[in-house]
Design a protein that fits this description.
The protein is an alpha/beta fold. Helix 1 (30-45) runs parallel beside helix 3 (77-97), helix 4 packs across helix 5 and helix 5 (147-155) packs across helix 6. The chain contains eleven helices and ten strands. It is globular, with a radius of gyration of 17 Å. The chain has one domain: 2-enoyl-CoA Hydratase, Chain A, domain 1, CATH 3.90.226. The longest helix is centred in the middle third of the chain and has 21 residues, at 77-97. The chain starts with 5 loop residues before the first strand and ends with a helix.
Length: 257
Amino acid sequence: MVGERIRFSIDGEVARIVLANPANRNAVDTTFVRELAAVAGRCEAEQGLRAIVMSAEGEYFSVGGDLRSFLAQRDSIGEHIRATATTFHTGILALRRAAAPVIAAVGGTAAGAGFSLVCGADLVVASETARFVSAYTGSGLTPDGGGTYFLPHIVGRRVAFDLMATNRMLSAAEALSLGIVSRVVAPDALEAAVETLVGELLAQPEGALAGLKALFRRGEDEALAVQLRAEADSIARLAGSPATLARMEAFLARKPR
């Protein structure tokens, strides 16, 4: 499947999700979340998958929400962002429910919703040049994509709040030390390292990793779904406030796209 924002393929026991909009730094918009929900649903439904690899074209894994597209819906921005977040969360939940582990291959910056996607993966292989930042509060918003669920579970509540409140940019080495990243490799070794990891997963006895992921998810489904609804409510409520609209406009003025 080749979409406008995502390329998707299944080769034997491995599914590959490629964020494929490098011209817009793989930003998250309504088209992106619809395509993600569709391919994630395929991954959940497909029998026999044993690994799901999520990677990105270009210098950025994803810069997160497409603020320009959000501001284009200024008159109904709250409803627009709620709908976008809700569809995004459909994809997040499907990837968590998929039996196969999700590997995020990160070669560049993962910010905002891109950072949430990384935090929701089961394994993360990053280039030494990768960078990670929450970014939401910098534009007057709160996280979505499960960021407020996944990150505290990875690094602890206090560190997660610090990272999300201050938007501190993490290097790959810092992300590794905090447990956000599983493995860090040289930039030219990223693809090979991911394929080595895929090979390690496929070498495990059939059913073992699906069982392991199910155990890690035990008790998570309802709590994650509740948190995702709360995230969608929060980001939608903030989006239409004058202060947030001004902050998003200022952010775009600083960082032309």
